[in-house]
Amino acid sequence: MTEVKNRRPLASRQAGWAVRISRWLAGTRITPNQISMAGMIAALIAGACFWAADGVSGGLRSLLFVAAALFVQLRLLCNLFDGMVAIEAGRASPDGGFWNEFPDRISDMLILMGVALCIESPALGWAATGFAFLTAYVRELGVNVGAGADFAGPMAKPHRMALVTLAAIVSLAEPWWNGTGQVLRVALWVIIIGAAFTALRRAWRLVGKLRRPKQDRAR
Using one digit for the tens of pLDDT, what is the confidence trace for 77-106? Predict the structure, then answer.
């Protein structure tokens, strides 16, 4: 019950296509944990595509950006379906909590560092990764102290991945102004600042919840 209560609210779970795919997955031998692992592999490919785009130009660079955007979205789809198969289909495992969180942190790092290496600025990648981790840490801290998970933005995981995807697509137009990664650089800075604010916002909200009477914290 607690696991369901602390799930990220996603409207896409109610979409017909998502329900049909999750039911199909539930009828196979694919486990929720394997779907989580597949999401990590998708993130690895996305990050590698971003990194490989450094130093190349023309059609190949555009192809790598498109592939990166697609694999970022595939990572999110895996995040969606692992939970749907585990909870809605009743196939959760004792170690599901680990596979729900650990691959997400690795995936964040792989994608954000891939973007940073594409623009030859690993420091920005580590900063973005660090603040992304911090947002997740504060969320899980809320669960551990009994205040529940806080998925507030403005730069929660879906927002970060949406921004990275958008930046990859917009970067396709860089040849029009002789750009060399400025869009991706701006995206990383937005993630850094936004994730830092998100972590502070969640921390502030968490402290506020903990100061309330215990019976009111779940509201």
Answer: 999 999 889 887 777 888 888 998 999 999
- CA–CA dist 73, 84 (Å, integer): 17
pTM over 0.70: yes
Q: 56: domain CATH number?
A: 1.20.120.1760
Secondary element (H or E) of residue 17:
helix 16-26
Number of domains the chain is built from: 1
> What does the pLDDT look like over 22-38, one tens digit per residue?
889 888 889 999 999 99
Contacts with 150 (C-beta within 8 Å, 6 or more apart), sequence order: 138, 139, 142, 202, 205, 206
Measure Cα distances from 138 to 80, 94, 190 in Å: 21, 23, 20
Q: What is the dihedral of CA 133, 139, 140, 144, to 10 degrees?
A: 150
